[in-house]
Amino acid sequence: MSLLQISDPTITNENLKKFVVGIDLGTTNSLIASYDLNLRIYQENSSKLIPSVVGIQKDDNILVGNNACLQSDSDTTIIRSIKRIMGLSYEDINKLDHQENFPVVRAQNDLPCIAVNDKEYSAIDISSKILSHLKQLAESMENKTLDGAVITVPAYFNDIQRQATKNAAKLSGINVLRLLNEPTAAALAYGLESNETGSFVIYDFGGGTFDVSVLNLDKGIFKVLSTDGNTRLGGDDIDNAISIWLSNNYSFMKKYSYSEIKEYAKSIKESIANEESISIKVNENPVTLSQDQFQDIIAPILNETFEIVKNAITASGLSPSEIKNIILVGGSTRINCIKNLLEKKFSCSVLNNIDPDIVVAHGAAIQASLLSGNNKDNILLLDVLPLSLGIETYGGLAEKVILRNTPIPIKLRKTFTTFKDGQSKLLINVIQGERELVDDCNSLGSFILSDIPSMVAGGPRIDVDFQIDADGILSVSATETTTGNTSRIEVKPSYGLSESDITQMINDSNESAEIDMNLRRLNESIVEGKRVVYALEQALNNDGKDLLSNEEYQSIIDKLDILKSSISGDNSDLIEHGIREVEKQSEFYVERRMNSSIKSLIAGKGIDDIL
Amino acid sequence: MTITITDNAAKHVSAHLLSRGKGIGLRLGVKTTGCSGLAYVIEFADKIETDDKIFEDKGIKLIINPKSYAYLKGTELDFGREGLNEGFKFNNPNVKDKCGCGESFNV
Question: What pTM, to 2 d.p., does this model score?
Fold first, then answer.
């Protein structure tokens, strides 16, 4: 036998580890992060938040992120909030309440585009610039090529908007492992998937948008029950409310421009958090604001968000008492009283211990790490196959194609062949389970691949593809490679099995390992025995009478009969013995067959023809 | 039935473990692959799973999951040299036949 070396599981993991990230592609800011035991956020100029801003200079040079924000000259066209028009048609954009600060023109195929310097950029183009920038940032910091990314999208994004996001990623050379709903990402960051079931509200209060999602968790899979929000409600509105209060209460504010006042408002908002009251000096003039006053000022805005939460819960069909947690996402949720007010209003615990700015990217990074198969041992796998999947092979044996605990989505191929000469059909029985025999596994469904061209046993190549998508839908297809004939089936792998069924099946497979091993051996010997019988009988029918004397013929038939009767029993040793006996008895016959076929091949031919 | 290790193999395993600097023992197992059905797996073990069977021989912990154990009962792990190569060998009494390349085996 070959000599083996000890392999090191940790080293091979390190080599196989893929560089994958989570990307929170936001309206105002974006983040890119990876998760490998710890969260790593790729920063630009020491800021985690990278402005989702693209600047296009006169010479068509593109600037992204903080660099674009710094450009204030009129030579650079600044494009912000491109996410608002992702996947929208020209008509959709015209219907928006607020026109964006960039001129949208209609281009070919009705695709809305932004015209800059005689060039046209679609929303996908602009988004791809942001994504490329994020990709470069992460790649230069890790000094590795990016293998894939999970990109988050709002839960309310429709298929077109999702596809647009995917296309933008493609354009920037990013392999999208999956699009993930932003609220689901936040829930993942908090590890909520380890709960069996439950309903959660994600309260996402960002700089310019407010989104609420109600999620339901069932067996580790999140489902979005309802979404609601206001795309024009955010931290900006809070700054404005404080600015107005400042102007109304301090007459000296008149000396300042609105944007200057807003800067003061912002700093008040950021520093008041837990304070009873704060005082700042604006050019020697004292300004004081108490916590109560502050809460009064922002109350109208917060009340609007609470109304939206209520509506979202109503729309989800749940009662408020069924909500387990509210998760805070978005920078504006740093305002402390939001947590207290939510707790009071909806009487459930509010989660806010992960930085609300990064929680979505955090969840996306975890998901990316899971999907790529990194960190298998270190964190709970969310989307993995609970039981192995495979097909039935000749003799009732279970041939596994995708093993248990493989992260999904996944696609795997195995090649099979026929057992009999001229076999024209193949029954593909898709099975699920850990046991060696089909009878002990679940059959998920079966289909027939027909019109296999007539060939000797083992001749045809039949590729069987197993594909499981992100939603856990399994599709199995079988293709005969010479003709390209294909048959397929779609099934839900976990259908009808509860968590305890699955545990039971895995335990059974451990307990019955030895019985299974013996059964496997028996079945394999039966299959082998049948193959020998079949091949020999075919040969004997063909030329047995010509090449063998009557006695020789009979001696082989006798051994064959012994083998045949042992096959119907359950003693694998006996079958294997029978096979050896038959092979011994027919050795000279095989030799004669070889000689005669070689003779017939070379008969009447010159040496040159053969060599 | 136990799993054992020869003196020579034990010497090499301890040397490997020492140079690696961590690891509690050696994990042995089988996986389905190759042309004849099953192939051996031999790797450093950093932790023990709940179902694992553990055998200690000549100071080396040999860790095997219960499914693999069915195929490895009575196996002796040996270290040998063949031509220029040296490496580990499984002397497995359960083996009925092997494939030509020596990668895989049948029970």
Answer: 0.56
